Amino acid sequence: MPSPAQNSDAIMRAAGQSLAHQRAGGRRVGSIGRQSARLKRGHLAKKIGRILLAVGGIWLASSLLSLFITPIGLLGLVGTVLLSFIAVGVLATFPKMQPPTIDTLAKGDVKTMVGRTEMWLERQRPALPPPAVKLVNHIGLQLDGLGAQLKDIDPLHPAVGEVRKLVGEHLPQVVEGYRRIPEHLRYEDRAGTNPNKQFMESLGLISNEIDSVTRQLATGAIDDLAIKTRYLDYKYGSAMEKEEGAQ
């Protein structure tokens, strides 16, 4: 008969496999940015915590019952293992991580909004042409850089409102608008252009604007570093030159 330790190992292996499957939404889907990956890891960590609490509680209750009331016997052990597997299966599946919608992207703090937008973009990629997917992936990397700049920024900073509009509204609206166009009409030329070209141009403009905002937010840090470097050079670099001249 398997020992409790072996049963516990089997339960944890099953939990890991189930959680890995659920984390990918039933399929392997890569994150386009660190912010979306962080949100997924947070959701996964909560699931693991609930599983550990549930399984631990089941085995603790079984042990206390066996010690202080009546031995549970083989049937009780089998029931405990079965109940543990059921708990793992249910808690690894539910609650599922709710994917962000276009209506909820701009809500909450701006840094979390960046992560939600990355997650939302990930789910749009299958419906986009390969060139657009590459650009969306690039935008995901840009959003990581933008998110890093937003980490300690004052919520009342003027750039925060601009980021919320650009990332939480304009970007998803462009993608959603393109997706609503039937595929056979996306390449139909009108007045020298077509929806596909317009979509790529819009993504390019948004990408450029994200880069511009990121640079604006980084200006203060860049200036501070330059000032610090000049100070260190003046304080220590000049001193070293004087010492070398004296020798």
Task: Provide a descriptive summary of the structure in words.
This protein is mostly helical and 247 residues long. It folds into two domains: 4-93, no CATH class; 110-244, no CATH class. The chain is 75% helix and 0% strand. It is flat, with a radius of gyration of 27 Å. The relative contact order is 0.09.
Write the layout of secondary structure elements.
Layout: H1 4-23, H2 34-68, H3 73-93, H4 110-124, H5 130-149, H6 158-179, H7 195-246
Helix pairs in contact: 1-3, 2-3, 2-4, 4-5, 4-6, 5-7, 6-7
Rg, nearest Å: 27 Å
Structural class: mainly alpha
What's the count of strands? 0
Approximately how much beta-strand content do the residues carry?
under 5%
Tell me roughly what share of residues is in helical segments: over 70%
Distance between the termini: 83 Å
Contiguous helical run count: 7
Q: Which ranges are low-confidence, i.e. pLDDT below 50, for 5 or more consecutive residues?
A: 1-8, 18-28
Number of domains: 2
Overall pLDDT score: 85
List descriptors.
247 residues, 7 helices, flat
Entry summary:
The chain has 247 residues and is mainly alpha-helical. The protein has helices at residues 4-23, 34-68, 73-93, 110-124, 130-149, 158-179, 195-246.
